[in-house]
Amino acid sequence: FKTPGAIERSGDKKYQAGDYAGAIDDFNKLIEQYPANPSGYVRRSTARGRLGMNQEALKDVTKAIELGTDDAWSYNNHAVLLLKSSGGSPESFEKAKKSINKAIKLNPENPNFHFTRGIIKSNTGDSDGAIIDLSRTIELNKNYFDALRERGSLFAERGNITGACDDWKKASSLGDTQSTNYLQANSEVCK
């Protein structure tokens, strides 16, 4: 007989070691024994996501949310998985917005959550909102090169070449190869 904590620790240990299939086996046991506990679904979702099982991971994290998880990462992962699995449907973007807003409400200081919301807003045509969220991401973590690159691209689309070049230079200096490529492609304006 194992307690929920012991099963979680066993699965977490396997997950940390990169044994995602073994972790899933443990999390299956946790769900079998404690089906009303969202923790098993959250953990299995993360392991399934690592194996590229996005549809299954989405089902698990959705179940954890239905069971009442208060884990902010679950809401972020729900939003990301919706975007990966949706094919760009407006309904999925709306659900993703709701989930990421909940993640930010639970943990407003996490730069990853603001980044996710910025990407959602960018993909739904809300460039102003995307720039605000990406800027907040950078405020929280000045070395978040994905946010710098994406904000730079939005600046470029709006004709703010100086802002775009500045963001791409900073991201490139942090090791972002995409930003380095953008700078090379725009070498005449980004000096």
Structural class label: mainly alpha
Rg from C-alpha positions?
Answer: 19 Å
Query: H/E series, N to C?
Result: HHHHHHHHHHH
**Percent of residues in beta strands?**
under 5%
Helicity, as a percent range: over 70%
What's the story with the biggest beta sheet?
Answer: none
- In round numbers, the mean pLDDT is 94
Total number of beta strands: 0
Q: What spatial form do the alpha-carbon principal axes imply?
A: elongated
Cα end-to-end separation: 66 Å
Total helical segments? 11
What are the segments in which pLDDT stays under 50 over at least 5 consecutive residues?
none
What do these coordinates show?
The chain has 191 residues and is mostly helical. The chain is 77% helix and 0% strand. The chain contains 11 helices and no strands. It has helices spanning 4-16, 20-33, 38-50, 54-66, 72-86, 90-106, 111-123, 127-140, 145-157, 161-173, 177-185. The chain starts with a helix and ends in a 6-residue tail after the last helix. The mean pLDDT is 94.
